[in-house]
Design goal:
Elements (H helix, E strand, L loop, with lengths): L11 E6 L3 H9 L2 H10 L4 H23 L3 E6 L13 E5 L2 H8 L7 E4 L18 H9 L5 E11 L4 E4 L2 E6 L5 E7 L2 E7 L2 E4 L7 H13 L15 E6 L14 E5 L4 E5 L5 E5 L7 E2 L5 E14 L1
Parallel strand pairs: 1-2, 1-3, 3-4
Antiparallel strand pairs: 5-6, 5-16, 7-10, 7-14, 8-9, 8-13, 10-11, 11-12, 13-16, 14-15
């Protein structure tokens, strides 16, 4: 997408954050003292949770201060991403872990995302190329449309009732709880009823994550002579799928356990589950689509592309 330079006077920055483990513990146990007692009674170091919280909040505050002199700034917690409406000229700054960048991208429509690593000693930062001190400079480049970026191919699950779900890293199709999923998978004219612990469908960005961890299992099912390479480019116009723990029986097969989908191929999955079937993306379990009997999911490459400032 070709974007026009943003009017600096009207610039708006959305800083996306998420609660730290410390904040989640205090919310769970009502007070810091009670949270500390519980954690330390289990032999863990509560001080590490406090340090992580302090480092993170300091980073968010520093980024906010650096940008307020040049733009209107709004902080947005990850929890509210599904219902937030981003403006077409908003600059989105993510301060957090790599996963927070992925969570954010699928709710955008081409707005550039600046990933800032708040704690380089703690987070790898594959999608977080900038440090806190870089915030003001990179923002200036973005509003002038003078920045380099990478495009991210996304997956789209489309249900037969019209519901849709985007994925930046991966889609999960299967049981909500630790039970077996039953469904029919169809790809390029081949059909198979399967019973498994679910299907992982990955983009190039997500191919070094969950997909990679289950490819070994698929290799074992397919037998000797099959060496599966999970990783591929972030902007590749393809998706890859792996079936987790497929179970062979008189009525279920294990032939279609690994493959790829592109713009010239078609993949559908039809639910055969009475209940507890779900589809969710990028680890956001609570933002799911029901996938029960009668539901058919068609897998597409999304026309929308994520944009990460590099």
């Amino acid at each position: 997408m070709n974007r026009q330079p943003i009017n600096r006077k009207d610039s708006k920055v959305i800083i996306v954050t998420r609660r730290t483990r410390y904040e989640e513990l205090v919310a769970q146990y009502n007070t810091e003292a009670q949270a500390k007692f519980v954690i330390e009674s289990r032999g863990a170091d509560f001080g590490d949770y406090v340090l992580e919280y302090q480092t993170y909040t300091n980073a968010v505050n520093q980024v906010g201060v650096a940008l307020k002199s040049a733009a209107r700034v709004q902080c947005l917690d990850r929890e509210f991403l599904p219902n937030f409406i981003f403006g077409p000229d908003d600059v989105v700054v993510v301060v957090g872990q790599d996963g927070l960048v992925a969570n954010t991208l699928k709710y955008l429509d081409g707005q550039p995302v600046v990933g800032i690593n708040p704690d380089p000693a703690r987070f790898d930062g594959v999608l977080l190329p900038f440090k806190v001190k870089d915030a003001s400079l990179i923002f200036s480049d973005v509003v002038k449309n003078k920045y380099q970026s990478k495009q991210i191919t996304m997956a789209k699950a489309v249900l037969n009732d019209g519901q849709e779900l985007l994925a930046v890293n991966d889609l999960f199709i299967g049981p909500r709880y630790q039970t077996s999923a039953r469904y029919e998978i169809q790809i390029n004219g081949q059909r198979e009823v399967q019973s498994s612990s679910g299907i992982i469908i990955s983009t190039g960005l997500g191919s070094t994550g969950w997909l990679k961890s289950v490819v070994a299992g698929a290799s074992g099912v397919m037998g000797s002579g099959h060496s599966l390479d999970a990783s591929f480019e972030w902007d590749a116009n393809q998706l890859k799928f792996v079936v987790r723990e497929p179970f062979p029986s008189q009525t279920t097969g294990t032939e279609l356990v690994y493959g790829s989908v592109d713009n010239n191929s078609a993949m559908t999955v039809s639910s055969l589950m009475a209940g507890n079937g779900v589809i969710f993306s990028d680890g956001m379990v609570d933002d799911f689509l029901e996938f029960n009997s009668g539901t058919v999911m068609r897998l597409n490459l999304s026309a929308e592309k994520g944009v990460i400032v590099t």
